[in-house]
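Tutorial, part two.
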Amino acid sequence: MQITPLAGAGAEITGVDVRHLSSGEFAAVRQAYADHGVIFFRDQSLTEQDHIAFARRFGPININRFFQAHERYPEIALVLKEKEQKTNIGGGWHTDHSYDAEPAMGSVLVARQLPDVGGDTWFASMYMAHDTLDDATKAEVAGLRAVHSARHIFGSGNDNHYKANRDTDGRIGNTAAADVLDDVVHPVVITHPLSGKKALYVNPAFTIRVEGYPDDASNALLARLYAHAMNPDHAYRFKWQPGSVAFWDNRATWHWAMNDYHGERRLMHRITIEGCALN
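Running the prediction step on this input gives:
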């Protein structure tokens, strides 16, 4: 097994079959995941049962509340765009489940059907985003907390990001579950529970304000942090191939699914793993 760090974010792991990881290989994979925030595998042959078994080695599975589920395996959420559809899922920088009191640890995404060209996913390292902040900004954000919400993305209000676009009908739903979710508060900078590293923990999709800041000051600080985190030097563009698997940590990365394959079908299977409270 070889672990190769990638420019910007993540590491690629080769020479291993994730269906048959020895205890030593599993420990190395888990450490690489903690250290790099996202890990990639190529040339895997995972059935749905294999996918579930691999995810369960890392923790309990989170059954997604908002995505269309696999018809036989509710553990698997479908990340799908049909040929006739224009809107994809996850088409902007974000990190999943920051709106939960105990955000999901991460997700294992398996390529099932890919377009001939396009459909790459960007990943950005929030370890690097934090570490490359200037000293004054590090000092400013060190003790701050931010509010995260799901209602404006998945809820029943008129500002619902997906509800406003009928093109996503059937793929995103269950607005009632979002409506009853309380907004939650997390540190702007967390100590990662696996690696012990500092990571920036705000994101453009679900972070709505900095706690205790007036709206103008909150918006200005968040915009500055987002612009910094979006630096291409912090990111890696993953090109999917048949047999590709990506396993990202929501606490240490952002991701962004490119929407550049209109007229072609793209189907991915995603399993999300439960996490813990962040400090």
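Residues 123 and 255 are 4 Å apart (CA to CA). In part three we will examine how such features are distributed along the chain.
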